[in-house]
What does this fold into?
Amino acid sequence: MNNSIPLSRTDLTDLIRNKSKEIGFSLCGITPAVTPTGFSDLKKWLDQGHAGEMHYIENRLDAYEDPRKVMEGVKSIIVLASNYSSKEHPSLEKNEGRISRYAWGELDYHDVIKKKLKTIAGVIHTHRPECKTRGVVDSAPILERDFAQKSGLGWFGKNTMLINKKEGSWFFLSAILTDLELDYDNSHETSHCGTCTKCLEICPTDAFEAPYELNARKCISYLTIELKKQVPIDLRKGVSDWLFGCDLCQDVCPWNHKIPENQKIIFDTPSPLTKINACELLEMNGESFRKLFGKTPLSRPKRAGILRNAAIVLGNRGQHDSVPTLISSMNDEEPLVRGASAWALGEIATPEAVNALEARLLLENDPEVLAEISQAINNIQKKK
Ligand code: B12
Ligand code: SF4
Ligand code: SF4
It folds into this structure.
C-alpha cells in the first residue's frame, strides 16, 4: 500500500475493521463518542447502592457521562469483541470448585487484548500520524456495553450481558478511543430476549432486582472477585461451588447454545485452571499463590479473597475429608480466611470440626472472626 496517498475516511474505517478480524477480534463496531444513553440508568443504579464497594464507578461519574473526560478531543469509539471459551464446564471431583470461563486463559485477558488494541492503533497511526488514540479494556470509566450496543454489536439481555445473535455473550469488550471521525455503524435497536426469563430464574443469589437490573452486591461474580470483606452469611450457600466468578445466567441463555464449535477464541493457550481443588488452595502460601496465579485474573481478589472463597466452597460441598484443612486454615494469617473457615466447619459440623471451633474460640482475638466462630457453634447447637 502506498502511504503517501492519504486513505479516505471510508477506506481507513474498512482497514480498521479488516485488521480487527485478522488479529482475532470477532466483532467490530464504530460509534460517535457522545454521552451514553444508559448514563441515567447508571446514576439510578448507583443511587440504589447496587455497586456495593465498587466506589471506582461513582468516583469517575463525570467521565462516564462525557467520554472527553477519558480522552480529550475524542470523536469516535471503536468497540471490539473477543470471544472466550464457550466449552462446557468440566465435572467436579471431590472438594473442587469452579472458575468462570472468562478466566480460562493462561494470561490475564486485559494483557492479551491490550496488545491487540496496540496493533490496531498502530495501523491507524500509520495513516493518520498526528491523530490521538487510546485503547481501553476495563481500564477507563466508560460504559463499554452501551457503546457496543450503539455501534451495532448486540442488545442488552435481561441478564444485563451484551448479546450478539451469532456470537452469543461469551465475549469481552474493549475499545479504541480516537479523535478521528470515522464511518459509523447503526445502533442495535432490537432485543431478542422475547418472553424468556431463564437467566433471571437460575440466579442462585437472586441478584436480579428486575430484568436488566443487576444488584451487584448479590452477584457471585462481585462476591468472589470484587468484595474485599466477608461474604454476607445469607449469600454463602448461593455461592455454591464457585471459586471465582459465575457463569450461570449465561450458561442458560439460548443465544449461547447456538455458537459454532470451531469458533476462534482470544486465548491461544487455554489454561488448565478451569476448576481447582479448594483444599489445595487453602494450603497455599503467598509465594505459591503468586507463582500460580500472578499473571491470571485470579490475582485480583488476592490470596485472601481466593482462600476465603475456597473455604466457602468447602463449607457448601460438605465433605468430611476437608475438615483437617479447614481446621488448619483457622490459623491463617488473614482474618478473612479464618472467618470463612470457621463458617465452613460449622456447616460440615463433624465432632472434630466442633472441637476445633471451641478450641479456636479461646485463642482468636479478631472480633469478626470471633463472631463467625460463635455463630458457627450456635448454628450447630440449634441443628442438634
Ligand atoms: C462493574 C462490572 C461488573 C459488576 C456489575 C455488573 C453489571 N451488570 O453491572 C459485577 C462484578 C457484578 C460484574 C460481573 C460480571 N461481569 Co462485569 N463488568 C463491570 C464493568 C467494569 C462496568 C459495568 C457497569 O458499568 N455496570 C453498571 C450498570 C448500570 O450497568 P448495567 O447493569 O450493564 O446496566 C445497563 C443496562 O442494563 C441498561 N439498562 C438499565 N435498565 C434497562 C432497562 C431496559 C429495558 C434495557 C433494555 C436496558 C437497561 O442500561 C445500563 C447502563 O448501560 C464492565 C466493563 C465496563 N467498563 O463497562 C464489566 C463487564 C460488563 N463485565 C463483563 C463480564 C464478562 C462479567 C461477568 C460475566 C464475569 C463473570 N463470569 O463472573 C459477570 C456477569 C454478571 C452479569 N450478569 O452482569 C463484560 C461483559 C461482556 C458482555 N458480553 O456483556 C464487561 C463489559 C467487561 C469486558 N471488558 O468485557 N461486572
Ligand atoms: S453471574 Fe451468577 S450470581 Fe451473578 S447474576 Fe449471573 S447467575 Fe446471578
Ligand atoms: S436467558 Fe433469556 S432472558 Fe436471559 S438474556 Fe438470554 S434470552 Fe434474554
The longest strand covers residues 76-83. The first helix runs from residue 9 to 22. Residues 157-159, 193, 196-199, 252-255 surround iron/sulfur cluster (ligand 3) (CB under 6 Å). The chain has two domains: 9-85+107-178, 198-258+268-383.
